Amino acid sequence: MLNTLIHLTGQRVIFPFYHVVSNQKIPHISPLYRVKTVEAFKKDLEYLLRFYQPMDLKDVMDFLASGKQQSKPGFFLTFDDGLRPIFDVVRPILLEYGIPAAFFINPDFVDNKSMFFRYKAAILMDKLQPYSSIQTTALVNTLQIKDIKGFLLGIGYKQRHQLSKIAEIMEVDFAQYLKEVQPYMTLQEIRQLCQDGFYIGGHSLNHPLYSDINIEEQLSQTQASLTYIHHHIQSDYRIFAFPFTEYGVQAAFFKSAEADIFFGTAGLKNDPEPRLLHRIPMEIKGQSAQKILQSQYLYYAAKSLVGKNTIRR
Asked: What is the pLDDT, as a whole number, of residue 66?
């Protein structure tokens, strides 16, 4: 079926992306979404390899510049957030399969100096799970919030300071968590990925939702993360993946932002910005690559019928 959909839509190049792969419960992620196991991830890769040929960054740049494609449909794999299981779990699997990939990092989190605010919320949600009804009621009364989990999930970038206040009440020490769990890769590990032939890109400094910040801060976050990578990795390319989503980023941003390629998260979509490639999220409610990709192609085909498979800016 997938071959037919690829032929029908003409979408022969795709950009699947993940965050992490693990067989273990991850307190800073598991409350947010289901993490792919090693077995599930390998099945995804094997399915991709049945229908697509792995691409490296040069192939992607050639595709972007001239539409040049390989004889077989291609895919370029990417991972966001620079989490430690990338090095411990994903890296050996990709080396085994011979699949190139790019990893997008947030400089503020490298070496476990700090943590993404959504991961802090997840840690607090995880801490709530063993709470008794009496403990939960006491916390609700203290915070004067009826739906604590809903409140934690609703905290945005500009309200992130509230998480530290709640953590203090719940006796959660984020600094200790960073020290003991070390959720992020170190700079040394990131450099090793480069030596292995993988690519490193920017993902903003500290992972804001770009629609929540003004264009000046969008540009500052983007360029600072790219400058960090250029300084520490000495890469001759500049690639950037928007944190959360590119939704809300206006055309004016792309006129000033300096990068070879931008990566979004809108799935199988076209975009008027020639340097922006949209990626397919692969961590959807435990679904397999087969189900995710078939759904993406069917949705793209349906949108094509009414001329709505291109994003407007």
From this structure: 83
